[in-house]
Amino acid sequence: MTTIGHDQQLQTSSSSAPPLKKRTFSGIQPSGDIHLGNYLGAIRNWVRTQTEYDNIYCIVDLHAITLPIDPQELRQNIRRLAAIYLACGLDTRYCKLFVQSHVRQHAEASWILGCFTPMGWLNRMTQFKAKAGENQETVGAGIYMYPVLMACDILLYQTHLVPVGEDQRQHLELTRDLAQRFNHLYKQEVFTIPEPLIREVGARIMSLTDPTQKMSKTNPNPNSRINLLDDPKTIKQKIARATTDSLRLIRFDPERPGINNLLTIYEALTERSREEIEAEFEGKGYGELKARLTEVVVATLEPIQRRYQEYMRDPAELEAILRAGADAVRPIAEATLQRMKDVIGLG
Ligand code: ATP
Ligand code: MG
């Protein structure tokens, strides 16, 4: 894993003036409870670099309908995710926050780019295989086309950097390939070629119950993840039940995924070195590691949960923030979409 792109040559669309700062774009699906993996792999990093970049962060609701979801739940999840973004520290002075379906250009661009996407490229996407599983014949086509919509999300904003977790690396590669292919086909710089921004620590948090799989919102087992809104008792129970092994030795070791994952979460939250952490638990048992980890998780989440409750008390304010965000980004998306249509010969 690398931190990439800081000295990359800026490439901007000739149709818009280059921004003063590099632009970041990223998003989370309102498909379930937001968990520690989403926080450590994505949101925390967005917050930390928000003054450095020109940021656009999205609630990608069109992605959340790729798997069945109850309408009430989807609506709730959108509002909750907005409150979580703000509670984690995203600041509207530095970030534009919006809901994907409020900017219609995403869906329109996605149809167009889909027509330029070789089927073979989509067939190679591992996340489709993982999510569709045995149901490849019956799942909706949206889950297959998801990477094209994600590419449009990024490309519409002439994004330079995409801060995401490790699981999105393959989709980012596809986005770059699609953008390069389109630019090349029409011999014009319609799209900026984006770079992934994947941090070394926290980019891949694993499930607590099956540490060979990543922690996910849509895993049907609630014990597999720690949600940002879990109360201390639930967090304690989930960590106590987390899969370990019988070796009784506390070491970072990818061959021992259970312990390795607990230590990785501890490392990401305490921001201490691996040597220091192994020294702290020298001669100690798994019970002590789990107890310390519980303390650190609870202490991290407590202020986030407090702020979350405050934002949730004012739905009108949340709505106003999201509306202002959509109004601010729509012209950027429209300029790129118009350029796509112009070079293709549409309209
Ligand atoms: P879903 O099961 O609906 O796909 P998810 O947990 O994978 O949910 P996404 O909305 O797909 O969450 O991803 C949002 C962001 O969180 C992305 O940047 C993704 O890379 C990151 N992310 C998701 N899971 C993890 C994880 N386990 N560890 C680190 N980062 C993660
Ligand atoms: Mg996902």
UniProtKB/TrEMBL annotation:
Its EC number is 6.1.1.2. It comes from the Bacteria. It is found in: Cytoplasm. GO terms for molecular function: ATP binding; tryptophan-tRNA ligase activity. Signal peptide: none annotated. Keywords: Aminoacyl-tRNA synthetase, ATP-binding, Cytoplasm, Ligase, Nucleotide-binding, Protein biosynthesis. Pfam families: tRNA-synt_1b (PF00579). GO terms for cellular component: cytosol. It is an enzyme of class 6 (ligase). PROSITE patterns: AA_TRNA_LIGASE_I. Its main location: cytoplasm. It catalyses: tRNA(Trp) + L-tryptophan + ATP = L-tryptophyl-tRNA(Trp) + AMP + diphosphate + H(+). One of its GO terms (biological process) is tryptophanyl-tRNA aminoacylation. A motif ('HIGH' region) lies at residues 30-38. Residues 1-26 are annotated as: Disordered. L-tryptophan binds at residue 153. Residues 1-17 have a biased composition (Polar residues). ATP binds at residues 29-31, 37-38, 165-167, 205. Catalyzes the attachment of tryptophan to tRNA(Trp). NCBIfam families: trpS. Homodimer. PANTHER family: TRYPTOPHAN--TRNA LIGASE, MITOCHONDRIAL (PTHR43766). Belongs to the class-I aminoacyl-tRNA synthetase family. This is Tryptophan--tRNA ligase. It comes from Thermogemmatispora tikiterensis. The gene is trpS.
